Structure prediction request, 342 residues.
Amino acid sequence: MRTNDFNYELPQELIAQEPLENRDSSRMLVLKLSNGKIEHSSFKRLPFYLEKEDLLVLNNTKVLPARLLGHRKDTGGRVEFLLLHPATGENSWEVLCSPGKKVLPGNIIIFGNGELEAVVLDIKESGARLVRFFSSVALEEVLGELGHIPLPPYIKKRLPDAERYQTVYGQMEGSAAAHTAGLHFTPSIFECLQEKGVDWTYLTLHIGIDTFRPVKAEYVQDHDMHSEHFELTHVAAEKINTARDKGKKVVAVGTTCCRVLETMGDDNGKVKAGRGETDIFIYPGYHFKMVDALITNFHLPRSTLLMLVSAFAGREKILEAYQEAIKQRYRFFSFGDVMLII
Prediction:
């Protein structure tokens, strides 16, 4: 299976540069798994497509203020860090650096007025730097003061309110990118779901920056899938298994939830609690064990996320739906509109 099989042409003006004023005002393309038919709807009508005791599974991760602007102690040269994930060792992280070629082991980087310093320990094979931070207060606290929310590279417009790149239900800080399928939810949507008798639960998967990177391998199966940290609690696992026992739909809100559910699910359609790292790579040919329906944004060409939704609904159906979305001028990517595959 070739990576180019998951390519499509997107007019640049359809890449949403800012969120809608009201989160739940997004358009929603509904793709029916039973017959491949497409409906044009709105996210506010989500409860209409669900039944009593169906279960939504949402990712309660929050985006870390992972972008740090500083300077080299020796030369004063500007340096930008993007925190990727914690590494072994106290206050040690893997980070992307800009300008990368000038940040070398032994360099000391100063942030703010010296409230935070970092020493570069090593250069990883990927080009990322291994660094150790030093501060007089907890790293989380100083990041809250000095860090900035990183936006995807395709968003060129400044975001005045950083909370618009967070979900209304996020709790567990640790992602380098937003759980974008969840950006459409509002308290009023949850109220409508509750009135319908639809239930929900949460898991955690901290999203890495690799989620934006297109697959470069010529063949899909040759791609080296990135790993992300997750946690699925006993409470959530029990809710999911109960819904399946009742014959109700388990609806993954976002590809992140889908990855965790499929990682922790068994061949009998049961999920177990746990935490760890998942590098599951889902592409066409994969047999889904846990997910009955999927709420997801529109994804980048040649991306692992597009491959996942293609595995769920069929590559031809997904690409046809994307062409219809382009024709109807849907908004794409992080701040864009949404799909319900059901």
Summary: The chain is about 20% helix and 25% strand.
